[in-house]
Amino acid sequence: MGEVKITLLCVGTELLRGQLNTHVPHIAEALESGGFFLSDQVTVPDRLPQIRGAFKASLKISDVVISTGGLGPTFDDLTAEALSQALRIPLRFRPGEYRKIRAKFRRYRLRAGPENKKEARILKTARVFDNKRGSAPAQFVQIKSPGVPAKLVFLLPGPLRELAPILENQVVAAIRRRYPAGRARGKKVFHLAGVTESAAGEKLAKIAAAAGDGLEFTILGSIAKVDIHVFAQAPDRRRLRRRLMRAQRAIAKSLGSYLVAQGPKTLESAVGALLRKRGASLSAAESCTGGLFTDRLTDVPGSSKYFLGSVVAYSNEAKRRELRVRAATLARHGAVSRRCAAEMARGAQRAFGTDYAVAITGIAGPGGASSRKPAGLAYVALSRPNGTVCVQKSVFPGERRVVKERAVSAAFNLLRRELLRREHGAPRRPES
Length: 432
What we know:
This protein is α/β, with parallel strands linked by helices and about 425 residues long. About 40% of the residues lie in helices and about 25% in strands.
């Protein structure tokens, strides 16, 4: 059996008017957990002709179509009607479903109005999946034609909190029943830091060329981060694991110095794991990033085991008073300088009594720049247990928030490299 082709059809004018569609990654992940991948994704407005046309087009190329949205009681909820017209299957009012809807309203001391009867209009041949978190039930239709394998269509409610349990508990199971002999499928995600998307892509192209059948690679760059997604399929789970391990070894060999985490792990959680392994403590001093380093660090559960505290010293006075940056340093070199960053790191290390301390100072822009100190200039310092300090200078492109994010990621990566160097006893790489 070949690959099962699955189309996700997202219905909602708001999705074409700037509202972020969070459904795609969630649905893709749920399908992948069952061994299936999305083949296509279509977004259409709340207009009957477009929804009807999207169903027809999707069913020509796909084995499974999953739609989200447009099942509610209002005038612009048209998904069930559109599928009814596309398949020429009539809608029927089901009194039993309407009684369930009314009972849900009563639990919240509300009354279902006449408009809610629309939610109980179900395609004649459809099976209903109960929506435990909302009023509109989901619908499941099998399309059978002589000599052609049956196709599956799922109509799911729009809100993610409503569709998620239906998708995970019933939709994926229904697809697996229809395609039990499908190939084993899986995915691994690798997170890189300290390398550009183009440089990583050049190395990944060689890996992909030598990978052979059953492996696909995608590289995604975002602010201060590059992710590699590896998709694999094989006749069985054992060979699937072997293919994914082969890809992992190739990536580690080619990009090992930049590889920071896998799967749900992040750069900051990888740093946290290294600190916990060494039994080391950390503090921070931030200026241009305004506490962003601390925010990301403390997003990691258990960070209190190694992180003791930070100082956000935005003004020169705060740097002098809280971190003991010397007035002479500020006067001669300025707050955005290698010397100031080093003294900020030492000040945080003294204040909290930690093994390591990270400091960040820079010009996030767009103001405050000069010919000698452009917008995006940042100094990241790391004070070590032996009292020495290394400082990394960078000029980050992008708007204010992007510069801050890049500076924070640079700080995490600098600390990560230092912890790995000490763990493996490798010679220290020169800082740029």
